[in-house]
User: Fold Flippase-like domain-containing protein from Streptomyces sedi.
Amino acid sequence: MRPVIRGEEERAERAAEQPDQAPPLEALQRADPTRSDLVEVDEPILTARVHRPADLLRTLLGLLAIGALLAVATFAIGTTEGIERDVDKGSQQAPSLLIDFAGFASAVAVLIVPMAFAIERLIRRDGLRIADGVLAAVLAHGISLTFSLWVARMAPQSMQDALIRDAPAGGGLTDPVHGYLAPVIAYATAVGMTHRPGWRLVMWSVVTLDAVAVLVAGHTTPFSVAVTVLIGWTVAYATLYAVGSPNVRATGQQLLAGLRHVGFRPVSALRADEPPETRERERDRGANAPTRRYLVTLESGPPLDVTVRDRQQQASGFFYRVWRRLALRGITQRRSLPSLRQALEQEALLAYAAIAAGANAPKLIATSELGPDAVMLVYEHIPGRDLDSLPDDEVSDTLMETAWQQVTALQSRRIAHRRLDGRSLLVDRDGTVFLTSLRGGEIAAGDLLLRMDVAQLLTTFGLRVGAERAVAAAVTVLGPDAVADSLPLLQPIALSRATRSTLRQLARERSQRERQAVLDATRAYREARGSLPENADRKTVKAAKQAEKQVMDEALENAREADLLSLIRQQVLLIRPQAPIEPARIERIRPRTLVSLIAAVFAGYFLTSQLINPEFQRVWDDANWGWVIVAAGFSALTYFAAAISLLGFVPEKVNYPRTVLAQVAGSFVKLVAPAAIGGAALNARFLQRQGLRPGHAVASVGASQLFGLSSHVLLLLTFGYLTGTEHTPNLPQDRTVIAGLLTVAVAALIITAVPTLRKAILERVRTLFAGVVPRMLDVVQRPKKLLAGIGGMLLMTLAFVMCLDASLRAFGWELSYPTIAVVFLAGNALGSAAPTPGGIGAIELTLSAGLTAFGVPPQVALGAVLLFRLMTFWLPVLPGWLAFTQLTRKEAI
Assistant:
């Protein structure tokens, strides 16, 4: 009888006919395997191309290598010159006839070899790879020309010296990138010549010979050759990641052939695809990449469960695995992307070790390779349902205790499962629990991993039956001490990705219930109180608002629900009051720390580039140091004024020195976010950490920004009018300014006319300023707070204007204060609107143009602006980073 691969169509029909029966695996096991009327249907259609994370990683590494090479070429001038001298000295000793012959032979071979490979692929009907190679070659050629043009016209002189030299025989200058070598390398890499040893040896030998020939002949430089190779390599992998690589996944027919190869006689195979939500759970760790599972019926004997893993599945979740390896300590020491052979050996080892430990696990019968890109593991079939498929009333205490007994058996032999969620616990008809998905486990595991397994299974059962029953079942089998030892690992970062996702969803539902309870209590209070009389005095209105706020606070307190992890801790503490509850520090690096490090590197790069700028050198040489110190003093004053301004819109009491520290930290945050976003987000977070509710914190920051925007516009109009009366004859009537204003007007009309854009803008504004008006009403009722907010805002603007004035005076130039105020307000407005961090570029350009427009010489204007930005943006970076770190350590932001 011919084997049949039954696909999803038949499985859907069976599900429609028997909706209340067991899943497809059991349904097929009960079906007659000898039916002859089964329709031959191949597996679900596989995607023709796959986007491999490894290609993206190679692209990023290539870009980093190019950047590092260009940095060396720019700054290590002595090194580049020394390398070129050594190459020239060696080339002078080489016979000219040999150089000419090698150049001619390599130039011909470097074109013939790729063509020969293309013909060989076309004969084998693999034209897609050739198309990928041609596309990569075209892109590499275009990028090479663009890069050469940039180097020749815009790159620093030191970089040009490293990549360009005088051509021999008076031929002018050489190209920064070798003309045809980059496309050839891109083509060879994209078509897969590097995966075939014979072709790889021939291709790279020819490329190396050609590179040496042109280098010795004086047609290029060593750095040019290196950049050429990196550009070709990087473009090839970028192309492969963008368009995808041909899918070489093993098919069902290959599976049947592999089963016959290991001695089985299959009759039928049903593809047991997981639903999309289950596939996401399968990606929870690196070793748990989604696999293909089959139920295979044999001519004689019980059916088999077959798992197929291929390279695409190995790459699934690659970046998540890399992040987990970097972020968590003591979790895994294995490679982030193991080979198929290593994955096969790991899973087989765990299967044998689990059974040897006395745990119930599917028995591994056979393993085999399915070609160079896939492997299979054959298990005995265990009919049953996983824990997630069981209804809640079937999750009994006996079942949970049985599961804990299996975990105890594993832990007695120091085996960590590392994935004890609902999909990994299989329950058969007799209620016996089997541990599946062992492929992500660890042998000879440390205490940390074993305790994490306990915490994970506690959470898994807690999500189904509640904290009390889950803890009771665990204590019955493990004992109170073992359960108590897992409490420090009972934290989201130690749980699986699927469990964390479920906990987040439950948290959102709790938040929604709390919000609804507050709204219901407020509505009931207002109905019971009735409306206030129109002639009510201020004291009565204020008392009514305070009473309503108290009702809201009480409703929120009564509606609060503890999360599952807290409930589990409470249950364990009832049994072991002395149990440790302080979360263990298993994070090597937190996302916030990583962002801080990236921002610090970014800041250091820009700060260094600004300090070595010749214009800054002129600042230090020509500046009046007395006015420089004055400018620094006014810059420091802005942070105290910003703290006063923020607290003026916060009715609650907040520590002022710590608020000043938060404003200093904001100077560091501006480096990784636009100026109008980073500071607002930091202030909102700071206020929440100081005890304000999230809604009130955002509303206070929104009110401060809204009022700041209004005052900014009013000050700009006022000082603009005063400046106009002073400089009307001298103000330039530039067409560019008029064109810019018209462009802004047209953009505003387009946004107003297009419903989609209008809706998006309105929703964003509504979300940002939700609750701002009520918050401003609360502030208005406190005149001192309102005056503090207004005064702080005006003081901050005045300090910035005086800092710019001092920077201008440092170069011996003066302007009226209204003029300087207009220049600053206009430049700050454009800088805040620019999407660059801290308004880099936009503020400098606007301030310089503004000062020049009012008669300041361009050199003086640029020097003053650079000094102003140094005092207000670059120098505060280091104190800002220290303040950010300090507040983070104290959990104040």
